[in-house]
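Q&A log
Question type: sequence-to-structure
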Amino acid sequence: MEKKPFVTKEQLEHIVQDFPTPFHLYDERGIRENARKVKQAFSWNPGFKEYFAVKATPNPFLLKILHEEGCGCDCSSMAELVLSEACGITGTEVMFSSNMTPEEEYRKAMEMGAIINLDDFTHIEFLEKTCGLPETICCRFNPGGVFRMSNGIMDNPGDSKYGFTREQLFEGMRILKEKGVKHFGLHAFLASNTVSNEYYPELAAILFRLGVELVKELGIDLTFINLSGGVGIPYHPEEEPNDILVIGEGVRRVYEEILTPAGLGHVALYTEMGRFMTGPYDGLVTRVLHQKHIYKEYIGCDACAADLMRPAMYGAYHHITVMGKENAPCDHMYDVAGSLCENNDKFAVDRMLPEIEIGDLLFIHDAGAHGYSMGYNYNGKPRHAEILFREDGSAKMIRRAETLKDLFATFDFCDILKGAEIPE
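Response status: OK
Response body:
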C-alpha cells in the first residue's frame, strides 16, 4: 500500500505562507468519513456509541468534529473532562476511564454525569467515600496472562496495571449491586495498536461470555459492554489496514452466538478508539534546514521529538514523504533528525528517501494520535501549531504555537524573570 499525503505540494506551499513550519496538519474530510464508517460498521447494534479517546488528540476543534459525527468522549484525567465539558459533551456521552484516580477527578466526573469505569476493586470504597456511587457503573476487567490470537502473541495483560482480576470483578459487582447500583457495564483493553480484523471479535467473545456469567451468577442488569480501543493503523506502507466493516461484522457474529441466545440481545456496545479515529489523518509538516555529512548522512529539520516523540520513545516507524518528490527514486539513505540535545531525536534512521535538499518540505505521516498530545518541552522547545485542512480546501489554525512566554508563565509568582527580554 502506498502512503500518500492528503495534501499536494502546491496546497502545502500555500498553507505555509500563512502558518510557518513546523505544524500538525489534520484532514477534516478523512476524520469525518472514518467516523461515519465506524458508525456504519456497528449500526446493527442500536445502542452503539464510539467514545473517542481524548488522550490521543486533545483538541476541542477535533472533539467537536467527532461529536458532530455522533462520538462521545473517553476521558482519563481532569483536563480531558474539562475539555469535553467545554465542548458541550457531558452526561452519558462521557466515559471516565481512569486509573490511580484522585478524588477531585471522580467528583468532576460525577458532576458531569459521566459514566464511571472503575479500574480497581479498592476504588469501590474510595468512590463511595468521595462522592457516592452512581446508579450506573462500569468495571474494567484484566484477565491476566498473555493474550494470544491466531497470528501470535498480541500483548501481555498480566503485566498491565489496569483492571480487576476475574475474582475481584465478580465480588466487586456483587458489592456494588448490594450498595444500590442498578445498571452495569463491562470493559477490557487487552492489546494496543492491533492491525488485525480478528482482535475486536476475539475480545468481544471474551467479554460476552464473561457478561453472560456475571448476569447468571449475580443477577445484575448488564446494559453495555465496552470494547475499549486497541484497533490500530498501518504505520508501515506494506501493512494491510484494518477493515472496520469486517471488524463490525465479526463482532456481530459473536454477539448473536453468545449474547442473543442468553437473553442479552439488548446490550449496547461501546468503543473507545483514539488511534484509529484520528491517527492517519494528521501529518507533521516540517522544513529541511540543514544537511550534515559525517559518519552518516543527516537531514536536520525544524521539527523535533517535542512535536512527535513516538520515534524517539519507541523507535516507532512513521513514513516520510518528501513533498514534490513522491515519484523520485528512494536512493539516498538518511537519518532525519531534530535539534534536541538527545541522540534519539530522530524521525527516521537509515531511511531510504529521494535526494533531499535544504528547503524541502517533509510530510511525516500518521501523527494524528499520540503525536502532539505526547509532546514535551525539553531544551525549552515550544510545541508547535495545529492546523485543520478543511473540507473546502482552506486551512484553519486550531491551536497556536507555544511561545517562550507560555513556557515561563509558571514563574509568574516571582520576579526572577521580570524585565527579561523574551522573544514572542
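Response note: The chain has twelve helices and 19 strands.
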